[in-house]
Amino acid sequence: MSDKTNKTNPPDTSSLVSARGQVEPFIAMEVLREANRLEAGGAHVLHLEVGQPGTQAPKTAREAAKRAIDQEPLGYTDALGILPLRERISRHYSDTYGLDISPERIAVTAGSSGGFILSFLGVFDTGDRVALSVPGYPAYFNTLEALGLEVVTLDTGAATRWAMTPDQVLEAHSTNPLAGVLLASPGNPTGTMLMPDDLTALVDVTRDNNIQLISDEIYHGLTYDAPAETVLKYTDDAIVVNSFSKYFSMTGWRVGWLVLPENLVRTVERLAQSLFISVPAVSQYAAIGAFDATEELEANKAVYARNRDLLIKRLPEIGLGNFLPMDGAFYAYIDVSAHTNDSKDFAARLLKEAHVAVTPGADFDRVNGHRYVRLSFAGTYENIVAATDRIGDWLSRQE
Ligand SMILES: Cc1ncc(COP(=O)(O)O)c(C=O)c1O
Asked: Which residues have CB under 6 Å of ligand 1?
């Protein structure tokens, strides 16, 4: 565990830019830019770098959007979202988890990214300490830091299936009180999941110590063995962040949601009124339609499951067997230290020489990420077959 975030770039103080704006680049997006550049020059790049479904929004969502364009004014909506969508999300909690969550506790947000901004501002004050596990999704760091919060990193490893433990939370809290703990299950970049006992232990430790728990449940729906459990089963005091981006295959529509403790709803509403006014209305109508697309979405998931099985079999055969089986999401986080001590260079060469784009671990872990790469398997099966073949060929030429 360390209390600092270990910035690789010092703040730019040479011109009129804020220090808080000097967040780290999102490396996956930089790899994508380079991959696009190669493609513009005629290369056929296989994309395993960006974490998004290759599929479009489901048909029922697109139809709902078309209807809304023809029939609705599509102006500003209530800051917390249109009521039919909040009610539909509420029904999703009863259908999926058997929970009764009032629509009043649901706020529709501009993707989960918008939900993070609203929840961080709603519960934390400048300088508050928020713990999260490393490796983790890079925007957590950057958003918290840009908002003037202190990120407390809890280092995890394969031995604990990349899960933070209650002891780590307590240790960080005893050093200097924590205001919040942010967890994600299934997680990005590891695809591993917290088991129900681990989840309840974290709920207990945060409740007992008056620490706000925020649970990123964006990869729910995308699990391959056991389904993911929501923290709402164990507490009404946590903030749950979710989105239509992943399971629902709607990244570009920018729509997600929060489930809030009752006492936070008005605070988040007031913040949302000023920060976003409302979420794009057409996306909100489309999101209602997305709930009727189970067959299509399950078919998408079946492709990820097939890709996952292929990777679990094929990666060890090509010399990349050091990873944990993925419980959910669509990522494999692979230890490549047998091949390199600099996964950024490894990824750059793989892209340049074999035209396969992967994300170096530095995006997710500024200290140990140099030993890892993340592969996203959200593309087609054929893409994953071709990518593993290319990587295998390329690796065999390296030794
Ligand atoms: C763990 C996690 N949380 C949140 C997001 C942000 O998603 P969005 O803002 O599209 O809902 C992502 C995107 O990759 C993610 O991996």
From this structure: 51, 111-113, 137, 184, 188, 216, 218, 243, 245, 251, 256
Tokens of 351: 């892209």
| Residues present in the chain in total | 399
pTM, rounded to two decimals: 0.94
Burial (CB < 10 A; 0-12, 13-18, 19+), residue 232, is buried
Query: In terms of C-beta density within 10 A (0-12 exposed, 13-18 middle, 19 or more buried), how is residue 247 classed?
Result: buried
Question: Is residue 274 classed exposed, middle or buried when 0-12, 13-18 and 19+ CB atoms within 10 A define those classes?
Answer: exposed
Work out the number of other CB atoms within 10 angstroms of the CB of residue 353: 12
Which residue ranges form the domains of the chain, and what is each CATH number?
27-56+295-396 (3.40.640.10), 60-292 (3.40.640.10)
Q: What's the rounded mean pLDDT across residues 62-87?
A: 98
Ligand 1 centroid to Cα of residue 112, in Å, is: 6
Q: Is 214 exposed, middle or buried (0-12, 13-18, 19+ CB in 10 A)?
A: buried
Write out pLDDT tens, residues 107-129: 999 999 999 999 999 999 999 99
pLDDT for 116 equals: 98
**Each residue's pLDDT tens digit, 312-340:** 999 999 999 999 999 999 999 999 999 99
pLDDT digits (tens, 9 = 90+) for 174-209: 999 999 999 999 999 999 999 999 999 999 999 999
Distance spanning both ends of the chain, measured CA to CA:
35
Beta bridge partners of 331: 376
Q: Is 226 helix (H, G, I), strand (E, B) or coil?
A: coil
Confidence of residue 246 (pLDDT cuts 50, 70, 90): very high
123 C-alpha vs ligand 1 centroid, how far in Å? 20
Give the integer Cα–Cα distance in Å for 54 and 379.
Answer: 5
| Top-confidence residue, 13 or 64 | 64
Cβ-proximal residues to 46 (8 Å cutoff; 6+ apart), any chain: 355, 356, 357, 379, 383, 386, 387, 390
Mutate to test the pocket of ligand 1, among 137, 143, 257 (most ligand atoms within 8 A of CB): 137
